[in-house]
Amino acid sequence: MGSRIEEEILRRLPVKSLLRFKCVSESWKTLISEPHFKKKHLNHAKNQNPPKMLIGQTCPKDDTFYFYSSSLSSHRIVEDVRNLDCPSNFVPGFCKIYCCCDGLFLIGIDNTPNSSILLLWNPLTRESIVLPDQNKDSNYSIYGLGYDPISDDYKVLKVEEDEDYENDEDGEISNEILSLKSGSWREISDSNDKDYNCLSSTDSMDCLAFVHGAFHWHGFTERNGFLFSVISFNISNEQYGEIPLPERMCLPSDMIDHGVAVLGGMLSINCVYCNGTNFFDLWVMKDYGVEESWIKLFTITNARIPSIIPIVPKYMFADGEVLFSCGRRTEFMTSKGPYGFSNLIWSLASDDIDTCGYVYTESLIFPEVNL
Question: Which segments constitute the F-box associated beta-propeller type domain (predicted)?
């Protein structure tokens, strides 16, 4: 009984405290290190603890990359920003944060002028590992990281972007998937329809949207008269699918940008239109897979919209307010106005600063990678 009570207390504590408490006793160290405890702790944190935002910033003075962590507040200014140590096997030069899942981050690092590496990193436990090389390099691709409960494995999916879809008739677009347990990349494709394989050219997606056990992205299809469609890829059975779009959401020729994201556990679509009046639409799918459940959260009309794309939804607060990152030199805002992270270098810097941000839950998770 005592051990169960201890476990219930410990799994409610923050990660930093648990890492310190490993030194209390051998039994606590063993418990905190067990996979089942880490999963229970993560589930509790997702349901009870406020999320954080990992902010990455390249300083133009020395091309050094910095990581910051901040809590997310409903207030406009966040004060508890703190600097994070870089991964131990990482030289803080140019890099890109691709995606995150369960407190794990997939980071691309320029290793040499002609090559790059992928790094899996938990910023709280400070564990990191270089992932296996991909089968082929691509200048136009987007990544997703997700957990497969069927195989108890984390998987990375890379989807190629097809910038010349109409003239690409060879159908040689194939995506790649990495199972961390297997430790190797495999090419995957749908031989019956290459439409499922490719990603439409878009700026407003910084990673593949992962929800309900599947990755999602905007792809090209012409089913049901739509030029664009939301493509899904199930992480367990590795099958492509298609999410139904209502006719009123058909993307017209005056759409200049679009993206797929996850907000409040729901699949969402965001679109920017320019047809004399510039406006931004945000939709969510209340019941996954049900076409009739698409609802428009809001429309923002602003002449400045084309100048601040890409507009990427990041997080939905409890009151329904949505946090966005906007522009190529990222600024953060909500539907009500600017959202500030104070005490950062870039808060007083020029527009030359490259910034990105990803919402995450602090966790103890770090999967085994079979290299």
Answer: 61-326
168-183 pLDDT per residue, tens: 555 456 789 999 999 8
Helix, strand, or coil here: 150? coil
Q: What are phi and psi of 252, to 5 degrees?
A: -80, 175
Is pTM beyond 0.70? Reply is: yes
Cα–Cα distances (Å) from 238 to 53, 156, 157, 171, 200, in that order, read: 30, 12, 10, 19, 20
* Percent of the chain residues past pLDDT 90, beyond the cut: 36
How many alpha carbons lie under 13 Å from residue 331 in its C-beta half-sphere?
Answer: 17
Class of domain 50-360: mainly beta
SS3 letters for 304-322?
Answer: CHHHHCCEEEEEECCCCCE
- List the domain boundaries for the chain: 1-48, 50-360
Residue 19 CB-density burial (10 A; 0-12 exposed, 13-18 middle, 19+ buried): middle
267, 313 Cβ separation under 8 angstroms: no
